[in-house]
Amino acid sequence: MFKSGFVLDTDEKLNDAMYNKTPVIVYMNGKILDYGGVIEENSQYAVKINGDYFLKETCEFRVR
What we know:
Elements: H1 11-19, E1 23-28, E2 31-42, E3 46-49, E4 52-55, E5 60-63
Antiparallel strand pairs: 1-2, 1-5, 2-3, 3-4
């Protein structure tokens, strides 16, 4: 559905990636913070990937 490097910058895009089990990478300040995986949960303030929570305010999520 999404191409590699696509930025998931809205709740709708994050939810679509979670539903489709699209692997994502987490970036912070333009650098890879975590190689991530599949989104397990998308809340108002954070995204859960592999049991870890990443704040939407400080992180960017891109398709792997």
